[in-house]
Amino acid sequence: MKSIAKVRILFSLIGKTLHKYMDILVIGVVGLLVFIGLASLIEWLASSFIDGDEINRAKAVSVARTSLIQLLGGVALAGGLFFTGRTYLLARATNITDLFSKAMDQIGDRKNTSVRCGGLHTLGMLAHENSRYWPAVEEILCTYSKEYSSGDDDEVQPDVQIALNILGGRKGRENESWSALDLRNIHAPKAQLVGINFSHARLSGANFECADFTDASLIGTELDGAFLKGIILTGSRARAADFRRSNLSGADFLSADLSNVELAECTMEGVKNLTEEQLQKVNSRPSSLSAG
Length: 292
Fold this sequence. Notes:
Blueprint: H1 2-20, H2 22-49, H3 54-107, H4 113-129, H5 134-148, H6 158-167, E1 267-271, H7 276-279, E2 288-291
Parallel strand pairs: 1-2
């Protein structure tokens, strides 16, 4: 019985090996048959159409064979390069899959923040290297950010800060055809989001108290009902953003673009650097407003 089992294992290994290299074997066999056929054709042509004695015909056949060998050598080289490239791409795809799986395991480690941060950086790297991973990575990081942000924290947690930076680092988010980032009700006070791109993101009910959105892109962003007390919006682009019913007390609007912004029912006590020129461009004004 053991001998039979060994034979079965042997045949199984042989079968797997043949399957793995079947395309190479097929191409090799076809190439060999083509070579034999062309060599036979050359000899037939030489004997049928080349005038002269046997020596001249032999020389002609030798020259033709040499040319044929060189041609087939070039084809073989091209085939080798093709298979090398394909092997590299397959290995790279496998490596990316392994990295993605490992990163998912890391961000699920609830005991070690450093491990989670490493996994987040890996996901960000994969998304930046290949844009087709962005939708999946965005969905994962949005869920992660909301799950790991606690309403008891005075400031954003380091891993959530990393996730937000990755999410806001995708270029071209002004494209409305992309799926919107869903970060509703996230708790991220004092987050450092300088230059972040949250255009068209859904941030309703979020807590970004004293967060720094300097030079951020908030075009068409939903921030209704958000707690934005002390937020820094210096130089931000917030065209058509929705701030209705949000608390913007103490916010700094220096050089912010507020064109077509909704400010209805906002609390805006003690705001800084908000000019009448900016207010003339908004769609709706706040219910209470005073300068700081």
